[in-house]
Queue: 2 jobs
Job 1
Amino acid sequence: MSSTPADLPTAQQVVDSMERMHGLYPGHRRSGARGVCFKATFTPTGDAAGLTTAVHLQGPPTPVVVRFSNSEGNPRSRDTVPVARGMAARFQLPEGGDTDLVAMTVPLFVASTPGQFLELTEALRPDPATGAPDMSRVQAYVAAHPQLAEAVTQVPPIPVGYGTAAYWAIHAFVWTDAAGNKQPVRYRWEPEAGRAELSAEEAAGRPDQYLTEELHRSLGQRPVAFTLQVQLAEEDDPTHDPAVAWPEQRKEINAGRLEITAPVDDQDHWAAQRFDPTRLTAGTELSDDPVLAFRAGAYAESCRRRSRNR
Ligand code: HEM
C-alpha cells in the first residue's frame, strides 16, 4: 500500500522524531552517526550489462568510497550490540558523476510507508522514567501492522568484522537497458569471506570499537571484498514495499566485486558527505517504493542540521 499525501509526514517531522528516539548529538548523522570510510574498487563481471546501461556495471573498474556505520544516532555507540550496520557506497563514475548504494545488515525494512516509520520511531522514544523504550508501544505498533511482525523482530547479527556481514539495499530499483526495457532489481553485498557473527558472550569480550580495528587489521592480511548480488524480479513481484522480500528462488546475478583497499586519506571530508539512496545514474531508476523516495528529503534534512552543528 503506497502512502497518500494525507499520511505522508514531512522530513522535518521524521528527523525530529529520530532525534527523540536516538538522542540529539549535534554535528552528527541522525542515524549511522559513528562510521568510518575506506577506499575501494568495484570491478563489474559484465553480467548486468545486458540489463542496464549504468556505466559502473559495464566493463571497466570504478573507484568507490565506502562508509561503514552503526545505525544509532550516538557517535559513541558500541560495536558489541546487535544493531544494524550500514554500508554506504559511492561509485565515482567516469566523467565526474557519482551514484550511491546504501545498504544495511538486515533484509527487510521495519515500515512499508514513511507514516509507519514515524509511528515506530515515536513508539521507540525512550520513556523518561526508565531511559529505555516502552516495549508495549512497539508491540502495539506490530499489532496495528501485523504484516510488519517479521521485519520488526529481525535481529541483526553482531558481525566478526565489517567484511563478514551481508548488506541489503532493501528497496527495489529499476534497471533500464539500451532498448528501454525495464527490470526491477534488489541489491545485496555478499562478503567474499562468508558471513560470520559473534555470540553475545563473545561480543561482550571485544573492545567497544572492535569493528574498525578488525577491518584495519584484516586489510594488512587478506583482501576484504564483497560481490554485488542482484535479485531479478518476476512479473507481479511487488516493488513498493521494503518490508516484503521477493521469493528466494528468484534469479540472481553477480554484478561485480568490490574490494576494500585502504582507509580514505580524509575522514573528515567523507564524514561530512551525504550518501543518498536516490542518487542514481542513467540506466537505474527509483521504484514506486514511497520509503525510498522519502529518504532523499530526510537525509538532506539531517545533513542540513549536522552541517550547522545542530
Ligand atoms: C523512512 C525510512 C528511512 C529514514 C527516514 C532514514 C533516515 C536516515 C537519516 C536521517 C540518516 C542520516 C543521513 C545523514 O545525515 O547523512 C540515515 C542514515 C543511514 N541510513 Fe537511513 N533512513 C531510512 C531507511 C533506511 C533504509 C531502508 C536503509 C537501508 C537500506 C537505511 C540505511 C542507512 C544507512 C546505512 C545510513 C548511514 C549512511 C552514511 O553512512 O552516510 N536507511 N538514515
Job 2
Amino acid sequence: AAPLTVGTLSFNPEQKTALPAFNTVALNIPITSAGQPATVATGLSLTSDCVGAGTATLVAGAMSNGVQVATYTNNGCSLGRDVITASIGNSSQTISLAVSPANIGSVQFSGSSVSGTSIVLKGSGGEGRSESAQLTFRVVDQQNKGLAGVEVDFAATTYTGGLTVNPRHATTDANGNVSTMVSSGTIPTPVRVTATATRNGLTIAGLSDALTISTGLPIQRSMSMSADHYNIEGGDIDGQRVGIMVRLADQYGNPVSDGTTINFVTEGGAVGSSAQGACNTKDGGCSVDLITQNFRPKDGRVTVLAFVQGIENFVDLNGDGQYTCKGAAAGYQPLVGPCPSGGEPFPNPSDEPGDMGDPFLDTNLNGVYEPALGDRPFPFKNTTFKEKGDGEWGMNYLRSSIEVIFSGSDAFLTQVCNEGDCVGGPLANGAVIPVAGAAGASCQARNLSVRLADRNGNPLPFGTSVTVPSANKLSVAAVSPATINSTTTSGGTVHLMTVTPDSACAPGDFTLQVKTPQGKITEFKFIAN
Ligand SMILES: [Ca+2]
Ligand SMILES: [Ca+2]
Ligand SMILES: [Ca+2]
Ligand SMILES: [Ca+2]
C-alpha cells in the first residue's frame, strides 16, 4: 500500500482568539494515500507542547472522507501559545493556537508558621516566643487545582508600630503556594494579611486569619488559679486527683505565648505530671493534677503555689497600655532593663501587688513568710527569702496560691440545733441524738440544722451525700443541701431538715446517713420520745 500523508491541519471552528482554559476545539487532520482520501489513519501520532506539559489533551475521534477528527482540550496551559504536531511515518504537519491560562478561582489562606494565633511585640521575643509569622496562601483555579506562576501582592490591614510584611510581592510555586512574613512592630494590634492575585485581567484577593501582636508576657494582675473543687477525699485515701488550673494574660488581656511554663509546688500530696511539677500553656492556660498522698499537714489544709515568669503590675498613667519611662523615646518598652529616670508607679499594695519580693509557699496563707511553720521561698535557687522587691518595675516571678482541703472520710456532727437550741459536738459514727418536741404532748414539726465536718473541723469531701435512708413514726423532709459542695470553709457545712411527727405524736426515730464519694458511711440516729 502507498504511504499515508498528512495534509494541512485546521481547527473547526477557526480559532481567532485564544482558547480559554477548560474549553475544547476540534482539529481536522486530512490524510491521503496515493493522492486519494485514506480510509484509515494507522500510525497517527498527535502531540503538543501543552500536552507535553500535562495541561492539555488531544484525543483522536472518528474518521470520515479522509479526515481524522481530534478533540483538543486546554486544561489551563500557561505557555500562551501551543504548537500541535500530527505525524504518520515521515509525514508531519503542525498548527499553532493561542491558549489562555486558567482563571484564578480563589486565593485561600492555608496557614501560619506559629502554632497559636499570636506573635509577640518586637523586642520581647525569647525561647518559644515568635516575633514573626510566615503566612502561606494557595492560589487555585475553579477546579481547586493549584495555579503555578501567579503574581501575588501582599498587604497588611495595619502597619502600626512598624509592623512589616515581607516580601510584598511573590509568585506561586508549582503547587500554587506562595508565602510572606509578618513581623511585629512595637504596638500590640490584631492584623490580617491580604494576598491579591491577578491573571487574565481578573483580580482576586484572599484574607489570612487574624493574628494578634501582643507582649506574650503574663502580668501579675491577670494570673488566675483555681481547683476543680477544693475539698477532696484525701485525708485518709491516697491517689485522689483534682485538677488545678492557672490562666494567664498579658497587660492587654491577650493570651500569652503558647508554651509559657507554669511551675507548681505543694505543701502536701503531689502536684504535676511524672515529667515535672509544671505545665505549659495553650491558649493562655494549663492545668496539673494535685494527687492525695503523704505528706499530709496536720490540719488537712494544703497550700498549692504556682509561679511563672512575667511582668509586675503598674499604674498606666498615660493610658497607652505599656509601662512608660520618663523621658524615654516613644515606643520604648523596658521589659527587663530599668527606666533610666524612673517610670510609671506601682499600684497601692493594698489594692494589688506592685514591686514584689520572692514568691513563697505560704503554708497558712496569711501572707507572712514564716520558715518555722514550713513556709519556703521559690524557685529553689532562692536560698534566702527576699521580702521586698528590687524597687524597679520589670520581670519577676508571678505567683498565686490556693488551699485545697484533704478531707477526712469519717463524718462528725459538730453541732445540732433544734429550732435554734444548739448543742455542740463532735459526735462520731453511731451517736444517738434526742429530738425534743417531735413526740408526746404538744408535739409539732421541728426544724433541725446539723453541722458536719471531718476530724479537723474541715468540710467533708466534695460530693458527699447527706440523706435520711430510714424513719419510723415521723417523716423528714429532704435534707438541704443533700450533697456537700466545693468549699474550704473552716467548721464544715450546715444542713437543714424538717422533722414532722405522725398524727398521734408517737415516739419515733430516723437515721441520718453521710456517705463520701469513696463509699465511707457514717450514721447518726435521731430519736423523738
Ligand atoms: Ca503607660
Ligand atoms: Ca497548710
Ligand atoms: Ca505564712
Ligand atoms: Ca521589681
